Predict the structure.
Amino acid sequence: MHQTFTGASRRPRQVNLSGRKPNPFASVGQGQGTQQALQSAQQERAARQQQRNQLNAAKSLQKIWRGHRSRTETKNQWRSQWDADVQEAVDAGAFKSEEESLAAEKMLFLFYSERNEADIGRLLRYGRLRMEETNESAAHWNLRLARCTLAALRMIAKTNMKTTSSHLTTRTVEDLCRLLSYLVSRQRLTTEFIADFFGVFSVVVQKLTPSEPVLDTVRGALKDASPITHVHEGFAAAFLTQPHSSIILERLSPAVDRRALIQGAERATRTSELDTYKSLWLLAQLVYLVTEAPLDSVDRASYTRDTAYISAVSRLLAMVTDLINVGGRVIDMENDEYAQNPSAQYCAIKINNQFDTET
């Protein structure tokens, strides 16, 4: 008989979760069987948790895919409807009313994507119709349309950077620039848009062929956009901080207001986060535009004596001191190494364009 404290003589029942047949001769509560049972329970719990995770992941993927497919189908329906509506306006030569024009623009914003070449074509088609309008009461929509145009130009520049051939032609780029010129000239620009505008065109000029329509857009912004000081500050902080050839600067020079550029550059040195590389290029190209680029007036001394100009140049010189190697090897100014060195190019500008002695 098996005696217990309860007085019962019946042997207690053994429960084995390991799936193995119990040893009838083993004592109750043997440690090895208990440990195996715990490990088996943990493994089964982990397997169930993994199954739940896989099921939840599958549900999430299906939900995301159904949402993506639904949005794609809806946008394609909007595109078809938009094409039909705008085609009527194209056939008529203009929209019937301002309300119809704004309705088409709002629908365009619902599905527009700069990654879709067909959408860029739709943007240009709508832009051509807008450029034929004379009513300016809807000018508050121009900035949003300009942002879409700018995003398309940015995408084209990135495409050309990554591939040897672009699906979008030079004519498309030029048409986008003409549309952007029209929109910029009819809208008071925000500081954020100005910085984005010149940042995009800095890349466009570097990576694409800078045709006249492209440069006309930059010149138009410098001459016609407002406020002029903020425009030139954005030009200094976003465009002149990247390397451009003297030919490009010379072609842009007639549209540059030197006084506004000096004030904008001085403000950019105080408010913008410029690293050494950007500071060097801003310094070199600012000096070139003020002291060497063609001017209608020959009185350059009035610009070089300007306290804002002296302050901007002083700040920029302080920022690029780390690039000056006092004990470095002397470089011959006629060799190829010198010609490929941006620091040396800046020094050449400084040598060929001496500052006024009074400054």
